[in-house]
């Protein structure tokens, strides 16, 4: 019996293979933490989880060029270089391979947004890993899969799904294996949209990545987008599709769920993947969509989960220093200056992450 | 040994923890019909692997017999029609009036499939039920909310059987797409591992150029079979036969000002037959010949480079291995020959 496969796609960072292990366990724990409804099955009997890993494209190139440059400098270093300019080029190559926020967070996002030779293989890796997993589907059983993406991962998933399923040459068969649900946490797909990838005049609100029961009209059956109003990245992402985004039938069938919430988690990390999933405003609707069952978690259980969350993560008062600092970041994140956004991003991750 | 014993003891316990369809049905007795049916469907009890209904078991046997067998288009079509016929026959025994509507749709699917005609009823999504959160049942137009549980169960089972009839099409599409995606992914990995290494500014230039070539293409693109070389520093050994003895064989710094490297993608999704050339400026610590010279570098297989230079009317030959090769692939002995002062 084939299970519904849920893929996790991360944002930027120093993540290594296996990065999603904790998150996948967290989703299972959250799912199983609610009383099993009559006739319901535990998570492990219904779902399988898998991670998408693309960081090696960023890291391998960085490390290779740095190693090359370092090796050359090492071999020539004894005599000194005859040209200061060439020495500078070697040093730039070495610097590309260094660590730190600028290279592992900001650079990854900027590379993805502006370098097609980086973004295309990342999307290709996403496609290849998803399809490889779907090959395992038991014969005679429909393959069902969903994606949970976070931060830069939302942009990668959006762009990849558009490229995989937008009508065009060879896209017809793609309609046979589109994802069931796409959950975007701290959605930056509109902020980072690139018309050179999506097509002239196409952004995240006019791309093919929209929910619809008809595969010819949208890339998935359900679409969830979540933004913590205290998360500067979500504030900058500001995913707010216009009314015209969906046809009436999709609206009636509630194919799109906007899961915005206000919270400053105890950890202080207003942007974290884990923190997003932990919020009942995110995982309760997600579980209901994944099970196709609005009653899987009752309204009473949902309310209790919210109360429990608030008790454990009390929102600091308006004069609390941490809250004021976060709100100041939110204010700066509303600007359209890329350099400022990178600085805000750095401060969010360095000052408020646990 | 003990580990296997523990597994052997616990596996049956774990397996037996999974409830069968009758146990689930009993659990669901007090649950609203539409919710109960949804949970039974989610547990593979309606047209799925655990369903004991004779028509479903017939379908399961059909799929089991074709499992791991490469199917031709005609065999796939026959399998789909056979599964649709099972759904059609099943619906013939269902009393609910909505069953006739669905049966007609299944009949239409059989006709269209047999005739090789494309139609909405031949799409898997036409039959996919999203549960009570979205009505009607797939694209059939049937709203089951007001029906009694046996009727809902029957229609959901039949819809799922019809959905499964097209699963072989889906599997074929996934297989074909996966083969292409895997090859593309392998080429991308090879592009960064086997082509000449690129400094950040070269990645920028090549990205810009690559963008021009893929801008109007739909779908995910594969890597280019070329790369521009721009301000690429390298090292090598310079040989000038007519230079003084101490200057004849010297380490040299090479700056490739601009160049181009191209190849074809081999059957293993790796570059093959790569050729390239660069305009270079070399620097060596020499006294009898000028330390700086202009030259032309010829690249082979993104790894080996021969550079010809002119030094005050004398010809120099410079042998180099791409820095990546020097770091990762060359022997220690060869690598040591580059070390100044040795």
Question: How far apart are the termini of chain B?
Answer: 57 Å
- Count every helix of chain A, treating DSSP H or I runs of 4 or more residues as helices: 15
Largest interface, counted with CB-CB under 8 A? A-B, 82 and 102 residues
Gap between N and C termini of chain A, in Å? 40 Å
* Major sheet details of chain A: 6 strands, parallel
Q: SS-based structural class of chain A? A: alpha/beta
Unreliable stretches of chain B (pLDDT < 50, length at least 5) are 5-16, 323-335, 338-342
Q: Uncertain runs of chain A with pLDDT below 50, 5 residues or more?
A: none
CATH class wording of chain A: Alpha Beta
Order of helices and strands of chain B: HHHHHHHHHHEEEEEEHH
Overall pLDDT score of chain B: 86
Structural domain tally of chain B: 2
SS content category of chain B = alpha+beta
Strand content of chain A: 5-15%
Number of domains of chain A: 1
Strand segment count of chain B: 6
Principal-axis shape of chain A: globular
> What's the overall geometry of chain B?
rod-shaped
Tell me about this structure.
- Chain A has a single domain, classed as Rossmann fold, CATH 3.40.50.
- Chain A contains 15 helices and six strands.
- Chain A has helices at 21-33, 43-46, 55-76, 84-96, 101-114, 116-134, 152-165, 195-198, 232-237, 248-252, 273-278, 280-291, 299-312, 321-333, 338-352, and strands spanning 4-9, 47-52, 145-150, 181-185, 222-226, 256-258.
- A six-stranded parallel beta sheet of chain A has the order 2-1-3-4-5-6, with helices on both faces.
- In chain A, helix 5 packs across helix 6.
- The longest helix of chain A has 22 residues, at 55-76.
- Chain B has 342 residues and is of the alpha+beta class.
- Chain B folds into two domains: 14-165, no CATH class; 199-336, no CATH class.
- Chain B contains twelve helices and six strands.
- Chain B has a six-stranded antiparallel beta barrel.
- In chain B, a hairpin with a 3-residue loop joins strand 4 and strand 5 (304-311).
- In chain B, helix 3 (33-42) packs parallel to helix 8 (149-165) and helix 6 (98-115) runs parallel beside helix 8 (149-165).
- The longest helix of chain B has 28 residues, at 167-194.
- Chains A and B meet through helix 3, helix 4, helix 6, helix 7 and helix 12 of A and helix 2, helix 3, helix 4, helix 9 and helix 10 of B.
């Amino acid at each position: 019996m084939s299970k519904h496969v849920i893929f996790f796609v991360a944002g930027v960072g120093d993540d290594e293979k296996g990065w999603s292990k904790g998150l996948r366990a967290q989703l299972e724990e959250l799912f199983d933490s609610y009383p099993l409804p009559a006739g319901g099955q535990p998570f492990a009997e219904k779902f399988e989880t898998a991670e998408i890993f693309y960081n090696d494209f960023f890291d391998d190139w960085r490390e290779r060029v740095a190693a090359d440059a370092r090796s050359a400098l090492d071999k020539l270093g004894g005599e000194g270089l005859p040209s200061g300019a060439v020495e500078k080029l070697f040093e730039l190559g070495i610097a590309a391979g260094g660590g730190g926020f600028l290279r592992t967070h900001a650079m990854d996002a900027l590379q993805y947004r502006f370098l097609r030779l980086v973004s295309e293989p990342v999307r290709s890796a996403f496609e290849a890993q998803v399809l490889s997993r779907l090959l395992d589907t038991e014969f005679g059983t429909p393959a069902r899969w969903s994606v949970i993406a976070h931060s830069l991962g939302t942009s990668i998933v959006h762009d990849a799904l558009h490229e995989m399923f937008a009508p065009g040459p060879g896209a017809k068969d793609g309609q046979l294996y589109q994802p069931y649900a796409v959950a975007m946490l701290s959605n930056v797909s509109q902020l980072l949209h690139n018309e050179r990838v999506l097509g002239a005049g196409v952004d995240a609100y006019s791309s093919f990545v929209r929910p619809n029961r008809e595969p010819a009209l949208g890339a998935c059956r359900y679409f969830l987008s979540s933004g913590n109003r205290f998360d500067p990245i979500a504030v900058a992402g500001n995913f707010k599709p216009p009314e015209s985004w969906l046809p009436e039938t999709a609206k009636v069938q509630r194919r799109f769920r906007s899961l915005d919430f206000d919270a400053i988690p105890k950890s202080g990390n207003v942007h974290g993947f884990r923190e997003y999933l932990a919020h009942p405003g995110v995982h309760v609707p997600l579980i209901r969509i994944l099970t196709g069952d609005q009653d899987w978690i009752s309204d009473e259980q949902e309310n209790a989960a919210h109360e429990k969350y608030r008790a454990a993560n009390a929102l600091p008062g308006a004069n609390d220093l941490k809250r004021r600092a976060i709100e100041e970041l939110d204010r700066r994140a509303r600007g359209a200056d890329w350099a400022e956004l990178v600085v805000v991003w750095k401060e969010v991750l360095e000052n408020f992450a646990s | 040994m003990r580990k296997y014993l523990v597994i052997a003891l616990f596996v049956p316990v774990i397996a037996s923890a999974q409830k069968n369809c009758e146990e689930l049905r009993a659990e669901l007795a007090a649950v609203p019909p539409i919710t109960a049916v949804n949970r039974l469907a989610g547990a593979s009890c309606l047209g799925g692997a655990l369903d004991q209904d004779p028509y479903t078991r017939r379908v399961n046997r059909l799929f089991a017999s074709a499992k791991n067998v490469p199917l031709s288009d005609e065999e796939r079509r026959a399998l789909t029609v056979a599964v649709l016929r099972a759904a059609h026959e099943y619906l013939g025994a269902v009393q609910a009036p909505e069953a006739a509507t669905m049966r007609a749709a299944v009949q239409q699917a059989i006709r269209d499939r047999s005739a090789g005609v494309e139609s909405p009823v031949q799409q898997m999504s036409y039959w996919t039920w999203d549960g009570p959160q979205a009505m009607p049942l797939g694209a059939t137009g049937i709203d089951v909310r007001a029906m009694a549980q046996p009727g809902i169960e029957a229609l959901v089972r039949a819809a799922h059987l019809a959905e499964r009839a097209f699963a072989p099409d889906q599997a074929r599409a996934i297989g074909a797409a996966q083969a292409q995606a895997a090859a593309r992914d392998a080429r991308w990995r090879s592009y960064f591992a086997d082509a000449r290494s690129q400094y950040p500014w070269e990645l920028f230039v090549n990205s810009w150029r690559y963008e021009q070539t893929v801008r109007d293409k739909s779908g995910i693109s594969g890597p280019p079979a070329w790369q521009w070389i721009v301000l690429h520093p390298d090292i090598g050994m310079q040989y000038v036969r007519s230079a003084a003895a101490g200057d004849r064989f010297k380490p040299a710094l090479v700056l490739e000002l601009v160049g181009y490297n191209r190849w074809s993608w081999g059957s293993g999704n790796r570059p093959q037959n790569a050729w390239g050339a660069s305009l270079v400026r070399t620097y060596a610590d020499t006294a009898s010949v000028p330390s700086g010279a202009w030259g032309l570098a010829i690249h082979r297989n993104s790894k080996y480079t021969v550079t010809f230079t002119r030094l005050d009317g004398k010809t120099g030959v410079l042998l180099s291995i791409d820095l990546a090769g020097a770091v990762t692939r060359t022997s220690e002995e060869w690598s040591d020959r580059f070390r100044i002062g040795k």
